[in-house]
Amino acid sequence: MTQLDASMNIENREYTDSDGRKAIIPAGFTVSDNENEQNINTGLVIIASDGSEFVWVPVENVITNKIDTSTKEKFMSLYDEKTKNYSGIIYDVNIEDDNITGSTVRTTNYEEPKLSTWSDTDERVTKYGYSSAEEFLNTMQKEYNDMVTSVDKYKGFYIARYETSLDEQGNVQSKKGAYPYSGSSINWYELYEKQKTFNSNSVQSSMIWGSQYDAMLNWVISGENKNYLLGITRNETEKVQCGANKDDVINQIYDLTGNTFEWTLLQGAVLSARGHRGSYFGNSGNATRRSYTVSGYTGEMNGSRMTLYIKI
Known about the structure:
By secondary structure, the protein is of the alpha+beta class. It has helices at residues 122-125, 133-154, 188-194, 210-220, 228-231; strands spanning 13-16, 22-25, 29-31, 38-39, 43-48, 53-58, 63-64, 77-80, 85-88, 90-96, 99-106, 156-160, 165-166, 172-173, 203-207, 249-250, 253-254, 261-267, 273-277, 290-294, 302-304, 306-310. It is globular and about 50 Å long.
């Protein structure tokens, strides 16, 4: 399914900002005409033909074949020479005396790509078009491999500026003023499948991977405004429109502290769950918060966020 009109720009093109930093603008997208949204270091915003907005996340060091918890390079993915597959490297943000001091590799409890063994049964995944849980895992592994290969080549990916919502036709989007896609009939599987459909000949869309979320945070905390992540407060008692909280934005990305929990593709701390990031209305927390919920659970508090990677 293709939602984007590539006629706006028929080819991917390289963009250079005023500081000489580079990013790839995919066909079908334009750079924001707002000068405050044109700098890669503080948030380069691109706009799709439907008005959805995304922000470039630079990732300088993408792949390693050995995890070193003391490394400063902040690699995103681990390569396995035997299987020829990649897996996510997960980070915890370090906080001391209300200051972010950096991040370190987390080596337990969270993994990707991996089945949530209680939730991802053969019976459950067949409802979503897979012949077995093994096929479902193979699909996720290929999607992760494709994403990592792209990020390594182009040194970055795009994260949705806003939490995922739906347009009037039921298509996913990333727009200010829309309500996040969550509710009593929407579980992790619906969010996973739906967010794959915002794609074109130039980009593939996906629910955000845990290692992508952490790569985004590593980029944010490398900047001057890193401690702003800890200072954002929200007092909503119910789900509000994306971008409605004008204080909850950093590097041009909105609602990181939490309008809804943001479900990721990461397997959460128990085998039956998927990892959340951030918080949700009525609860305290920020983008560094990590939690998990079983894949089949539904509720207004459980949303997600898309990413895009350039197709190779």
